[in-house]
Amino acid sequence: MDNREAQFLKRLEAVFKIETEEHIQLLSSLLLELEKTPELQRSIEITESMFREAHSLKGAARSVNRSDIESICRILENIFSKMKNNHFVLAPEHFDKIHQAIEHISQLMSAKNQIKGEDHQRLIELLQSIIESGKTHTNGPAHVEINIPRKIEEQQYHPKKKKPISKSIVTQAKSDDFTSKDKPIIQEHIKKVVIDSKTSLSSETVRIETAKLDPLFLQAEQLIQAKIAAIQRVSETKDLLDFIRNWKSELRDRLDQKSLNNLTTLKEIINCNQTKQNELEGNVDELLQSIENDQRVLSRMIDEHLDAMKSILMLPISVLTEGFPKLVRDLARSQKKEVELIISGQEIEVDKRILQDLKDPLIHILRNCVDHGLETRDKRLKQNKTAQGTIRIDFSTADGRNLNINVSDDGIGINETKVIAASIKAGIVDPSEQEKLNKQDSLSLIFNSGLTTSPLITDISGRGLGLAIAKEKVDSLNGSISVSSTPNEGTTFILIVPLTLSTLRGVLVNCEDHQFLIPSINVKHVLRVPIEKIKTVENRDTIIVNDEIIALVKLGTVLGLKPKLNNGNLQKNNIANPSSYIQIIVLSNANHNVAFVVDEVKDERQILVKDLGKQLKNVLNISGVTVLGSGLIVPVINVSDLMKSSLKVGRTRILNEEVKPIEKSYKILVTEDSITSRTLIKDILETAGYLVETAVDGLDGYTKASIGEFDLIVSDVDMPRMNGFELTTKIRGDKKLSELPVILVTALDSREDREHGIDVGANAYIIKNSFDQSNLLEVVQKLL
């Protein structure tokens, strides 16, 4: 064993010790809670969690050759598995034995050489006795009976953390390293490696070098000076206020005591005021200079402090890629392929949260490269290629703000014809539109969910989800992903993501009296364009930028914003004459460009992005919000969503658009027990110009529908007192309301639930998981 490998194993054992302590603590607390929990559903959840903890610890112990701990965890896992499947229940004495086993693991970690072999064997026998006697214990208040439906294998094997397997940068796998009988074992190991790899960065703790903490302490001390300066500025401002008050008082006294008819007295007062004004101006100027100096110092301190904090969360990319060589090796062996993985740029430091979200995309891309991209040895030799295929992952950063990732292989390339055929079969592309697709459009189709060119579903691929998941993850980071391919030469995936999540640069735009921030990473051009440059191509407005024909749409139209009001009326397009200009911003995502018309491009800003929270995480076209210095909350555009939405709006008629006022104000009743969902749906409908009233549940909704005049009802299904199905049934049985359109918006997405909705008379059934405002508005418009 060389020194490098010894150091790696030492570090691995240190990480294992920390992880084991976490597993022990959680197992102990879960076991205690299980003893005190009579409620069935919670008992099911606890048992599931304990099963996963035992499984995770078993895998971690195996990776550092701790067979003593692995043997205990294997039996614990077996016990919890049998509880999950209702094979037996636990008696009070069983809990004692399991507590003893957990304590024994703790002792093994703290003093592994002091535990006698016979003590360890005795504990193994105690645990085995639980399994042997478990079926006979069926009575007593402390017994816990668990009945959990078996879940898919990926859910059962979902450890919280992963132990790094290899530190290699280059790895190779050759077909003669294994035989056919090894394949089932290899495939099972691939599952374990892939699933473990996905969670290696999930720990909420980070080890920090003391050298990185020193600047933080220094900056904290410097903040005391900023505090002192702020106190001084407050004091100086109070002095100014006192000066002004004294001046006003002195002026009143002069006016009261002397006659204004005396010219000398008037001159005296004017001169005195002039003197006071000059003095005030000097004091204000001095205060302003002090505040500006404070602002510069504080800005520098904040920037330095932010950089220091970022450095704490910044980890080398090698943390992300450490398990990739082993993953690729095992994938290649299972496919009887020879593969070399080369990784460069691993020393670059990236925000830990970015690395965590990059894990899934890169694993899916690597699996795609091995399974779809690279050929077997014989096929490569027939094509005059080397027997061994190559996958490269190149990390780089050019501007200090974004991380560029190129994942390439020298395989067969992407078959555009197969991709288009699969897209048509999956309903992603209309057959009549396939001739209009250029090469980049065709290649980008591989990122659609459900699209696969594989004829067989395997453990590695074939479900058509991998690349769709990769794109969703990259989009959530305000990044971009694209692909290029050359037949028989290979494929390259290009990912661009920010180096850190805390801040990003964004372009502030104004549209229909609303402000939005667009990530600068997606902004390709900002232009003022003469109106005569707009041309109509295939019934869509377009513009030519750098010899490229780009689709042109109004940002407000895509976002569903109402046109601005002029004296209470909807105003017509403000482009009145052919010589006027429009302001456009050209956005790019996945090598696809679209130009958006905005009212004004204000400036570019460094912004702090806040997410929308769990309730609003799926709001279409919006990825988060930021707060401007004025206190205004501004939405941050999700460019990937926006580009997709722009394809649905049709022709925008920039040249001769006239907005017609809504002839009738339709009234809609929104019935929803969740205040968040109720507010969101209400806001979407009101923004579209509808009058909206709300109800908090089905009974409240039926009461309001009976006494009110509504044109349509939008209702949740799962509600107290009266659910959406019951509400719809009541409405259809009421002579007055029987023809009232009903849209059910719900999280219940099973086939039975949908059929139930149709049976009770709902006009539309929208699933919340795929909910977006354009779908809702389209259905509402159709029913009205």
Please tell me the overall pLDDT. 77
Question: What level of helicity do the residues show?
Answer: 40-55%
Low-confidence stretches: 135-200, 456-460, 566-579, 656-662
Shape: globular
Describe the protein's topology.
Layout: H1 3-36, H2 40-63, H3 67-84, H4 92-110, H5 117-133, H6 153-156, E1 170-173, H7 183-197, H8 210-257, H9 263-313, E2 314-316, H10 318-321, H11 324-334, E3 339-344, E4 349-351, H12 352-373, H13 377-382, E5 389-396, E6 402-409, H14 416-425, H15 439-444, H16 466-476, E7 480-486, E8 490-498, E9 503-511, E10 514-519, E11 523-530, E12 535-537, E13 540-545, E14 548-554, H17 555-559, E15 565-566, E16 569-570, E17 581-589, E18 592-598, E19 600-608, E20 622-627, E21 633-637, H18 639-646, E22 667-671, H19 675-687, E23 691-695, H20 698-707, E24 712-715, H21 724-732, E25 742-746, H22 751-760, E26 764-767, H23 773-783
Parallel strand pairs: 3-5, 14-18, 22-23, 22-24, 24-25, 25-26
Antiparallel strand pairs: 1-3, 2-4, 5-6, 6-8, 7-8, 9-10, 9-19, 11-17, 12-13, 13-14, 15-16, 17-18, 20-21
Helix pairs in contact: 1-2, 1-4, 2-3, 3-4, 3-5, 4-5, 7-11, 8-9, 11-12, 12-16, 20-21
The gist of it:
The protein starts with a helix and ends with a helix. With 784 residues, it is an alpha+beta fold.
Give a written overview of the molecule.
With 784 residues, the protein is of the alpha+beta class. The chain has 23 helices and 26 strands. A 6-stranded mixed β-sheet has the order 1-3-5-6-8-7. A 6-stranded mixed β-sheet has the order 11-17-18-14-13-12. The protein has a 5-stranded parallel β-sheet with strand order 23-22-24-25-26, with helices on both faces. Helix 1 packs antiparallel against helix 2 (40-63), helix 1 runs antiparallel to helix 4 and helix 8 runs antiparallel to helix 9. The longest helix is centred in the middle third of the chain and has 51 residues, at 263-313. The chain is globular. 30% of the residues are buried.
